[in-house]
Batch of 4 targets.
Target 1
Amino acid sequence: MELNRFEKGLNKLAEVDGNAGEQVIAALDDIAPDLGKYIVEFAFGDIYCRETLDLKEREMITLASLLTLGGCEAQLNVHINGALNVGIAPEKIIEIFIQCIPYTGFPRVLNAVGVARKVFVDRNIRVAKINS
Amino acid sequence: MELNRFEKGLNKLAEVDGNAGEQVIAALDDIAPDLGKYIVEFAFGDIYCRETLDLKEREMITLASLLTLGGCEAQLNVHINGALNVGIAPEKIIEIFIQCIPYTGFPRVLNAVGVARKVFVDRNIRVAKINS
Amino acid sequence: MELNRFEKGLNKLAEVDGNAGEQVIAALDDIAPDLGKYIVEFAFGDIYCRETLDLKEREMITLASLLTLGGCEAQLNVHINGALNVGIAPEKIIEIFIQCIPYTGFPRVLNAVGVARKVFVDRNIRVAKINS
Amino acid sequence: MELNRFEKGLNKLAEVDGNAGEQVIAALDDIAPDLGKYIVEFAFGDIYCRETLDLKEREMITLASLLTLGGCEAQLNVHINGALNVGIAPEKIIEIFIQCIPYTGFPRVLNAVGVARKVFVDRNIRVAKINS
Amino acid sequence: MELNRFEKGLNKLAEVDGNAGEQVIAALDDIAPDLGKYIVEFAFGDIYCRETLDLKEREMITLASLLTLGGCEAQLNVHINGALNVGIAPEKIIEIFIQCIPYTGFPRVLNAVGVARKVFVDRNIRVAKINS
Amino acid sequence: MELNRFEKGLNKLAEVDGNAGEQVIAALDDIAPDLGKYIVEFAFGDIYCRETLDLKEREMITLASLLTLGGCEAQLNVHINGALNVGIAPEKIIEIFIQCIPYTGFPRVLNAVGVARKVFVDRNIRVAKINS
């Protein structure tokens, strides 16, 4: 039986964000449940389930966009975890942030790296040092 | 003989942006030549020459960041051309923009797709229609 | 028979934006048809069809958000027309922009008023002068 | 006797923000008293005292603008309280944020809803669940 | 006789922007005259007339802020002219933009330099080349 | 012997930021050492060492840009300290923020002043009250 958008979205959310994503949705339940419904249905059910880009590429794009927005440290936290979950190495996550420097300047990149530090500590991850 | 940062940057700029990138630098020569020098040395010589991410991934990240910034249509034009130059299919460029919708909303994505339309027309490119 | 999200969205889009909205969607057909589909289904079918706020309130909020984003003059054009279509007086549209001054500063407000000028000229509208 | 801009502003500030607004102004007294003076005189004395839009509409616009700016959680806190003070129902405040989704994407909306949660807890407010 | 805020503002506006500033205000007269009134009274009458920073420093700060906002090319045009009017050398204007690179990235700086080019051409100004 | 870019940058970083700047670089050592290297080499070695603007002017521009970006409170903290270190009076720092009001609106200025308050408390600084 074919899944509806919400079910497809829930599955994709679990695949990318594991528990953290479900927690974001659950935390909305008492204040803005429809916001959670739209994130599941539209962001994950419609967008993340599309072809042409794989999950790693989608997380890479999402991280670049969240860094550039500024002020989205909570979402960067969820998606740095998501990037690790779909198999992007920690060194590659840092490299995604470094790639943004010419386009956003250093402050936004520093703030994103600061979030990555917290996530890596939480997950007991050591970053292999990349020196050019 | 090892190339200096400027020479490495010029080579990388040519590899990614072909003529368009050199035109940006040349256009700066009479007003802010050092700005052009820093773009070549730092953006291309230092950042684009790094390991860990290939050129296609770097252009993908750059496009996501430029879209999110807003107001950077001139730079989106250069980098949509750059993405095509390094072998990213037009359908994939559109997909990168679509991936940003949940993070930036529709206006910024519409504006980026508008720039892509102009680039594709200039380069006589037809986008294979992707319907989900 | 109950309409699906796309049909509900098309109806709402026509109600708010008349021809202009349909033109935005049609213009996407050869380059990013799914982007148009999501705007119709999600922005108009899901969000604009909701209860609790009427169409005038929704357009008021949309105008404030587009002004604040900056660089979204094309979308401001569509929604200034939309605001007029749903019955918001031109003087009220200008007042919405003026209300933003303490939060965004003058440049973004000047740019939005500039778009309003073009729309009012196109639609042969004279703004009743509001002096405090 | 006619009030001057500062007095009109203080009255309007009290009407919208009650104690919270006065606290923002008072907190500036030892570091940037003129900043507080301009907020009272210009934002509240000039802008908020204008005709054509009522206080509820002004708070609606202000909330949309603050959400879209990003990084203005402190001001969102003051104005979510202000919106409640002028009689906007909590469900309507959430709906204002939901209306922004197509224009700002989900992160900025999530961050604004997060501030609303804290305000509602502080004020012992339960949001009537709105499901579409 | 002491000038009121509007008169002080008009004088300051003329001192900084010459004709260009008056044109911005005049152009608002048929659509949003109060917006023009607030720019004269508040931006120029209150803020620009303050002590502690001279006009050159104020224009320097304004240019940095407008560059960083993005999408404010019209206002950058007015204030690059204003900076020249108050005696900031063209080379110094370019240097102000270059100083922003580490904080905003290259795109916003390129766009500001693009506006400067147009202003310098209009005013027949040649920039003395600054090479480091 | 002539210093290389990194050494020039370290010297300039110490001159502007004293210990705080070195701490930012050191804190990056275990997660993104190249990010620290680029800040030292490019931001301080290339940009801050340039002619045409002195250190006070550079810090003034940096503060205006960081305020306008929003969400860069950590960097504002470093550079408010930097501004004090290079001899900009606390009253002048506040005035730089006030100058931004017409261009960014009040929220971003309030947030910057909030960071200044913390820095002044940490450094036992009392601001001479400037009333207009």
Target 2
Amino acid sequence: MTSKHKSGMRLPTELRPSNRRIEAFSDAVFAIVVTIMVLEIRIPDDLAFGDNSAALMTFGALLATYALSFVVVAIFWGNHHYLIFTLPKADRATLWLNNNALLWITLIPIVARFLGAHPTSPRAAAAYAFVVMCCTLSFSLLRRHAARISENEFHRALHHRVLRRIWPAVAVYAAAIPLAFIEVRLAWLCLLILPAMFFLPIVRAEGKEIESMYEKKGNADG
Amino acid sequence: MTSKHKSGMRLPTELRPSNRRIEAFSDAVFAIVVTIMVLEIRIPDDLAFGDNSAALMTFGALLATYALSFVVVAIFWGNHHYLIFTLPKADRATLWLNNNALLWITLIPIVARFLGAHPTSPRAAAAYAFVVMCCTLSFSLLRRHAARISENEFHRALHHRVLRRIWPAVAVYAAAIPLAFIEVRLAWLCLLILPAMFFLPIVRAEGKEIESMYEKKGNADG
Amino acid sequence: MTSKHKSGMRLPTELRPSNRRIEAFSDAVFAIVVTIMVLEIRIPDDLAFGDNSAALMTFGALLATYALSFVVVAIFWGNHHYLIFTLPKADRATLWLNNNALLWITLIPIVARFLGAHPTSPRAAAAYAFVVMCCTLSFSLLRRHAARISENEFHRALHHRVLRRIWPAVAVYAAAIPLAFIEVRLAWLCLLILPAMFFLPIVRAEGKEIESMYEKKGNADG
Amino acid sequence: MTSKHKSGMRLPTELRPSNRRIEAFSDAVFAIVVTIMVLEIRIPDDLAFGDNSAALMTFGALLATYALSFVVVAIFWGNHHYLIFTLPKADRATLWLNNNALLWITLIPIVARFLGAHPTSPRAAAAYAFVVMCCTLSFSLLRRHAARISENEFHRALHHRVLRRIWPAVAVYAAAIPLAFIEVRLAWLCLLILPAMFFLPIVRAEGKEIESMYEKKGNADG
């Protein structure tokens, strides 16, 4: 850790080679996770010429779960984007906290497929909520590490501000797990509410503010 | 938005980190969308030693639909290429308009597989036309945003010029949807005409002109 | 084309944004083509505890075809590497000649799977030879275009030198197509000889020479 | 090889175009290898509403094998990261030693799927150990080449230090192959011990030390 002061300051953050490769690897994983979910979604052959409302419902559920998962993965990608950007260095702990986050992200297609095929199953909804909750927690671990190793006071403050906003999200996903076994529709509500809230004007405004702060400081560092 | 003037001018467009990651993520999604369609195309085992004209026809239809979809995705990728290049900054709206465009692009393999398996189905042709129309519209939303946030008068003029050319394309795909239920061959014609026109000398000449304008100004900015 | 002189000289080749995105998109396509072939290769479940020599043979044929196709795609990737590096600009013709080459590359998994499943089928060997021949031809079209638009006399000479070496390769793959229907083993020989020759000392020495020439001039340009 | 002195010194290592493309291609292959393993893991439909302990066990074995393989591939990716970073040039030998390493990496999903489906099969455990052993050996060949062509004495010393640590790892995987046929649980132990050891404090400390040395010298070179 003693070399941090010297090497961390020399190159602008966004050009440091190790960060660049973490970005490249992570971007590819995010892109593939988003896209392989599509491999599972087939328009039922019955619908080509005939009518089959059961097949249509099945297809609709798969498509809706895909759209939800696309938005969830895209939100995580956006967070990752700003998080890696502020990392002062790509040490071994960063690498493995990032790998841990990616491992949970790659489980999303598995639970998305299960939930898409069984949208009324309490277990499917609970499994989906559990995996997204673990994604959120693993991103928080990465962010906490970033806050700890950063020497930029401004970045640290931003990380702590975002970290405080994480707990309500974790609580909603945690609540979805037992709720799924009481009433699966309540679990679905929990799964939908956070991606939907992300687009609310008030949340967007705060996000915009944080992002513009990141950008300003990030450029000032370089 | 107040930080746009300062931060947007400092680095040449193509080196700004956030644009770079949007590019990387989008390129990966485009590449995977193009390639996973191949997973669905199998040469029928019957054709290894015996003759089976039905199997050959099925395979031919899948292959033709793949080639068409490859060209469609590649045209969108080319447009994306020039569009991102002129984006002054990668704000949250840009991110999500881009995610929206990518979401529609990832639906192309689903409808391509359905149309390839059922080339005479009116619904399959209509579904394909609908998804490509939505891709076109979602790219236009991204471009309109780029035109709005750009401070470069030249880029704005180019965006508006391209935006005007979008409506005939949207109209052709929109027309294909009802036409499919009257005569599926007319819908196919609509699906084929635009990718084919893209290679006509007159369209190519205009495209070349626009691209060389982009390049010239893009470099001048940097 | 009039802007070529000015813009082509300003930035070192390897930093020009449009070339960079062609590289990124192509690299992703090459990487996915190589990797999705693996999705088709399953170790037969029968082999977990019992013996089944038929299943073992089938698996062996799939694995051998995969290894061959990996080497073929990797050779094309290596050529693409040096080709894009010398492109003075990424104009629309370059983009579409590149897309054409990628389209043929994405067909390799389809014929590899067919040949792996039916290694004694004349049609499978002929289809494989046909697709690899078309890949070679489409790369030559791209290279001829590069030779034409390049202003660097040295690059032009190198391109012409490589182009002359293409014809024997095309001839071998073309010969494999009729040979497959006479004796499938001769077609296999044609398919194996070129990737094998690539590693012969004499061919490697010439390749090394050409590459070091590219590198030297490429750096001198930048 | 005569041009090495001149061209290898001119640009900082991490900006040399040919290294960059090897990185990009390799990162994409690593990312796809990690992610396509997920395509094989399905939560059994029986578990949506009913209980089926056999299906649950099967799913658990697949998931555990996936997690193990994710860690194995991520360790190789991390090593690759530091290895490519120190390569003085991307010559043809580097390219093909890298391709060889990637070929073995792409076989991991095949044996992971087989081991996940048959966790008690001696052959499956032996096949898995064999492939990971070959990955380790192929990375050592690449590293030995890097040590040979490097002009940086410091990098050479580091490479030799890491190369000495490779043999115990190869020995453990080699031992797992015969052990699998005596007692499959011992083979599993061999497969688990190395990824687990990677996270032991003492190993982590040494790894950290080596990495910080790489970083320091790498930056000093640029």
Target 3
Amino acid sequence: MDTSKGLLAALFLQGLEHRRNLSYFADLSSTKVPNVITPTTPPAERPEESESLDVWGFRDTRFDFSESGHVIIRGSRYELSGKELPRFLPWVREVLECDVSPRNVNSPAYPTSIPEPFLKPDFLEALQKFFRPNQIDTNGEIRLRHGHGHTQEEMYAIKYTRLGRIPDLVVYPEAEAQVTALVETAKRHNAALIPYGGGTNVTDALRCDGREQRTIVSIDMRKMNRILWVDRKNMMASIEAGAVGRHIMAELKTHGVTMGHEPDSVEFSTLGGWIATNASGMKKNRYGNIEDLVLDVSVVTAAGKLERTGASPRESVGLDLRRLMFGSEGTLGIITSAVVKIFPLPEVQEYGSVLFPTFEHGFQFMYDLSRESTPPASVRLVDNLQFQFGLALKPKSSGGLADLKSKIEKFFVTKIKGFDPYKMVACTLVFEGTRGEVARQQHELYEIAARHGGMKAGAENGRRGYQLTYSIAYIRDFLMSYYIIAESFETSVSWTNALQLCDVVKHRLVEEYAKRGLPGKPFVTARVTQIYRTGVCIYFYFGFYYKGIANPQEVYLELENIARDEILKAGGSLSHHHGVGKLRRAFLPQIMSQTAIQWKRDLKKTLDPTNLFGAGNQGLDGS
Amino acid sequence: MDTSKGLLAALFLQGLEHRRNLSYFADLSSTKVPNVITPTTPPAERPEESESLDVWGFRDTRFDFSESGHVIIRGSRYELSGKELPRFLPWVREVLECDVSPRNVNSPAYPTSIPEPFLKPDFLEALQKFFRPNQIDTNGEIRLRHGHGHTQEEMYAIKYTRLGRIPDLVVYPEAEAQVTALVETAKRHNAALIPYGGGTNVTDALRCDGREQRTIVSIDMRKMNRILWVDRKNMMASIEAGAVGRHIMAELKTHGVTMGHEPDSVEFSTLGGWIATNASGMKKNRYGNIEDLVLDVSVVTAAGKLERTGASPRESVGLDLRRLMFGSEGTLGIITSAVVKIFPLPEVQEYGSVLFPTFEHGFQFMYDLSRESTPPASVRLVDNLQFQFGLALKPKSSGGLADLKSKIEKFFVTKIKGFDPYKMVACTLVFEGTRGEVARQQHELYEIAARHGGMKAGAENGRRGYQLTYSIAYIRDFLMSYYIIAESFETSVSWTNALQLCDVVKHRLVEEYAKRGLPGKPFVTARVTQIYRTGVCIYFYFGFYYKGIANPQEVYLELENIARDEILKAGGSLSHHHGVGKLRRAFLPQIMSQTAIQWKRDLKKTLDPTNLFGAGNQGLDGS
């Protein structure tokens, strides 16, 4: 009995210890942790969070050339900020075989044109009945910004050609009642409504139609940014649709939880935007994609409010029209809030990286990983060119030991392990979970990696790779001013079609580029950015030097469409997560039957008969 | 170098060993395992698989009274088959406080009525152009069967009252082209089409409308039952919508894989039915619910075929109308096939069970389990009454050691551990996965269980619990002939509302039952049948002795609706997985806004303007 008592005592204490470690979770019956937390309204906009109107990102950050002629990131926001990147320019010159240099500048003429607003006085008066003066804006640059996302064509247009039709008015509702009033008013005055979140879409989703005769109102949702409640016992939260990713993360973190959704645009994109574009996040392996995370959606439609009495863990209640909002891209109504799943902040977060001799080795590793183990929260595999890209963005090293260490690493990798620097690739990893989970995932993953010739390259390289994502977003706009045009496009595809898809896309782009006698060589690179048991997401970058090309943005588009053709032929989807917008609407008949296309039109006509929500994406323009 | 060589060799061998254990998965580049398997057509129906027309299940199985007056399951199909269950009848008599006995029989008058078919000769002729004679059936009992599912009201009607309107014709398409021809013909001749899978729904989904003037054609999909292809490299399979669960499981098993979807009706229900009812399966913890499992759906609609060029791991392609099919309950078109995820058969499958002192202990255990560990493939918690129910269904023991063992167990549980036999409950478990996964899940689960006063009760009790599920389905029809009416209903609800919901539902039913002066006492019991981080599925059984009650099926319905009212008030959903059908359509305005209801009607009217797919579920009858 004594031993069993001792054993019981030990077990009891162990249980206590275990419980202490899980301090986020109280007994269901405990009254110490409130069931539902209603956070205070977040602080008003802060000047240091100001965003640029003409380029991606925060105003305080911009790529530039330093006094020494090296590429540098101005500001201090990011890890890479303020550090010279001496290898970048030479590398770009070498890859593109072009004369990119500080002197060779294509000065932007932003803003190229801003049409006068088309706004009838009675409409404005009607809006002023429920909007305060600072909730209505006719400022030209503000309207211009609300008329585009971040496709290369839009960014080129606002600097070098012209964007065309833009919203006539921007409004900033602060509560759902105002959205409802706005919808009613817009119906009465026959205006078109286009919701706006972070303005980060890359499908021309915000582009206005030049033939649009009605007043176009851009509804900037970002003043509806409250977290309405956080329920830590049932692991749900209700969040307004205009809440921006970085604020959601920060606010939820103060309550010890996370939504787990981190797209590359998370600093700026909004919950409503995520739903409307059927978004995917970096850590979907652990948390799921947006359709896995959202339990309920409230929408203001042309016919009234689409809402439910409460969110359910899971239900079968017939046709679930809330699912229509996923991927609706602003064509069916204004998403005002959503109930989402939340998760405890992970006990442990660790980065990692593995080098592989070739992309095929790394790819095979990812395949086996998807079958044999629980993949980490994030696992990405870049091809050799993107690996070089990452190296080219390494800051000037501080000399001394750091330099020596770098040289030794390089020697070891290339001479001892025999990796070919023009074939080797890198796989970056984020592990999240309990200590035990993470240890297990790491153990199994590195074992599988070794089986495929992989060599652990440490947490630091992994971390760097992920941090790079946020600063790299600024690079496109910078390069555009130096005669380089570049963009990303992506797809999802089965495992067995993926490698060939990467090959044919790369080959076709290089071939078409040469055929057109375009300058230098194009930059085409791919990475596997998400894995599923059934396939992968492949993310391409494509760029080239455009000096001397009359309409580089049109050339770019033509080539991207050719690439998309190849993607579809190779069995890839139209998009894994970016969506359709206007950019890819012409491809819809290639991927779905005529009936499916007609169903979409009919549905739009039924649910929004006057095309009040006139974003016109996916060809749903009311016709 | 020698040690590292030795280490490398060891690692290599370990890798080989590891790979050998994963013999289902070949290298992407291997040519030894074909990429895609196209199975042969399954064998034609076998007589031993014949199903009853008047009651649930296979013809070879039926509850009965033995010569000794004990309840027994006739046949040899199930584990419990052929064994006397001596405790059952006494237990029922005690719980319901009624005179249930072999002599007290309410002889069914099945079939109570079969209306003549309403079928115009030209319509029949048109069908005979593409259907063979054995694909068309006007037989009365066959038509009757196709006009109902398994609600208590329907089962009571076909034996004691009358079902009313039934299909005029049953057809059995064998290929999608025939479905398309059927839809075209039905449009021309203004017939109504109702798809039929396993006929196991419990929402009156197949019930025909007495006001229906058109010829009603029941489309029995079960001749479209092929597995079209199995892709083991990309872990997907394409399966025709009429394929029945047990056949899908058996066929996929020959290829070493599973779809992982096992609803309690899996022996009879079909893939199309699962999609149409937004079904949930027993092992959803491991594999997901139907919406997680289906990658693509092909549908024949009033306007043509809804289909895609190929299935994607995941995509963002705008409005995804395939999602509309989930929960559509036959109102939008005929689902003809779907691409689904497949999974390797688990390396290990183990059962388990844990006894808890009270339901609250067990519930708290499940809460902690959902937060602290990866729950096993299935975990269910029954309340005390259902625990007694399980014990009452134990076969007469073989005497000797088995008897002794049982007595010792009982003594230990009640006297040593102090469990109150009128409060204790049981939790049954199914673990599936790799050996390591399962070991880990078990370790963590039993630790958490111990923390809540749980006592391991072994694999055998767990296995028995799950096997019971399939044979219990036959009991309702048996009891109905002995003046007991019973049904199940379910909901999903947050963790914090669940216990109270169980309480108020039970109390209200008992109260209302007594208020009406109904005979004896009702049987009301609940179990937690699924868990999510955000809540649970609660599954109720409700039954009573109805001798002397004029319209017991109406009384039952009235009481169930009262229970549903309480469920909604307590924060529960309209249904976790059974669906809406006609049974719960009146509740829809209580759970969704008027706009949502109108959107559904408008959508139905747009996508099926003549209500060709006239099942009329969820109030979508074209009005």
Target 4
Amino acid sequence: MPSTAGTAPAIKVLPTPSGLPEPLPEPTVEELRLETVLGALSDPLRLTIVRKLLLESEQFDHSCGWFGFDRPKSSLTHHFKALREAGVTRQRQYGLERRSHVRVDDLNACFPGLLDLVAAWAPEA
Amino acid sequence: MPSTAGTAPAIKVLPTPSGLPEPLPEPTVEELRLETVLGALSDPLRLTIVRKLLLESEQFDHSCGWFGFDRPKSSLTHHFKALREAGVTRQRQYGLERRSHVRVDDLNACFPGLLDLVAAWAPEA
């Protein structure tokens, strides 16, 4: 079967807690570019990150440890930064830890349907 | 304004003529992968190619000369091949010339809404 045929699973949006740290630098909604967002999503690990955040988030944002990837931390840091700099995720610094969540409203406003494709994606068998 | 906000322009699908040459090698529908397709589309020139084919096609498929790009032919050949190998376009050899069209039905079946994002895209001002 094609990787994203069928109905997309439901995207969870958790309420924004109060008192969050400021977001790290990111593009504004007006600066979001389709080519840049697609480039950030053109990687199975980054699709996995975004999909898991969309479908399985247990809190507002998550640090890279939550994902349970068996990868060097430096590599993961790079991927999380690439997603933030493309405008796919928002990152905040909590002490020594950075946590990410997906900019669902911004992406739905600019690129309707794109996150449904990510939610429906599955890694190659 | 974000690059793809608003309503997507209508995608034109021209009827398939009879007696076409065989398509060049390409992934089957079952082999289409979201990460690969997004990678192929994460480039302004390739988005321009696909968008122009979707919205302005005057015949079933078009050679690279039709686009009027001021780029070396070798660079264009590379981009058209990348689109075909990702499964975004289908290419056929007509004598010395290759012509491309977008695999609209296949992409809509696998990645609903993706081509509307391409159609709504505009190059950076």
